[in-house]
Amino acid sequence: MMLDDQDMTEEWIVRVQGKEYGPADIETLREWKTEGRLLPENEARNASADLWSTAAAIPGLFEAGASEAAIASRLIEPPLQTQHRTFGQILAETFQIYRKGFFQFLGLTLLVLLPSVCSQLTTPLMKTTQGSYGDLGVLAGGLFSFFMFMLSLAMWPIYVAGIQILSAEIANGRRTGFVAVLNETVRFWPRVAALCVFVFVVFALLILFALGIALTLAAGATSPLSIFFALALLILQVWMFGWFFITVLFWQQFAVLENAGFIDSLRGSRNLARSGQDLPLFERPLWRGAFIASLWFALVLIIAVVSEWTTLHQYFNQLMTTQDPQTLLHQLTEAQQARGFDISAFVLNLLQRILQPLLGIAFVMLYLDSRIHLER
After folding, report:
1. How far, rounded to the nearest angstrom, does the alpha carbon of residue 172 sit from its chain's CA centroid?
2. Phi, psi of 129 (to 5 degrees)
3. pTM reported for the whole predicted model
4. Which residues contact 149 (CB under 8 A, 6 or more apart)?
């Protein structure tokens, strides 16, 4: 379908000097533009969407001969909102966007999921192969599994950037092709990949730091100085995690939708997370973001417990009936090795990955909503 044909099927509402006009098709808008009644800075939105942008963002209006590159450059423009949304509205719009772009979000998910599944399925097949590491079949399987794992990691920045672009486009009432989204995500790959590595490394270091504190307490140190030192480290750990959470809360949105650099993405995330101090506690971006993340982690925990329920129940029974720690460890190891492919766990984990774009969409909607208060 050509661009002009697509525009003819869409209708827009414009706001000039506080009054709304429309819905009007692209030809009517062009007439208003010619008559001087419609300017690029006037607010406008698609008739089927609630989020406001500007008339300059309407495809084919002020750039009737725009090239594909110019159209693609508008993918990262965040829509202009004029109303502060409640938390319930943010969640409702999140599910609406996910429903409207389900197959595109599924395509982005498969970019990461398929290589990961291939890697996971290859590993148990290698265990059934007779022979040593010198066996060509085992070696080829190992190389294939490693390649699929690395491919899954390489696709992750494209997945992250694609979620941001696609969510903003659908929220703004524009339909963008899957290939166009992929083409746009490629230029964000180096920056998003670097930020992903940074977030993962810092998070891993914080986990190791917490484990170090736990080992210090488990070492049996009972002197007041040792206890005070461990508590001081615990307070430092909580502070560092809070600082890190604030710094990276909105990094994906700033890196992609704002096209900000590495440092600017982290700085923008921190400033936006700390904004809204004059708002009620639950309306602040930081607390809303923390609640969204908590909801997702709770869902992940439920899926993990359900998928591993049989194994957890078996471990609990062995723990209650076995007194010898070495025997218990031996039984748990044998049970883990004897465990075959669990289709129910596989399906539940697959469901989790398919639903995962909801988390990214929710943060895009929260980011767009929070920008209202930040820009006032």
Report:
1. 19
2. -85, 130
3. 0.71
4. 115, 116, 119
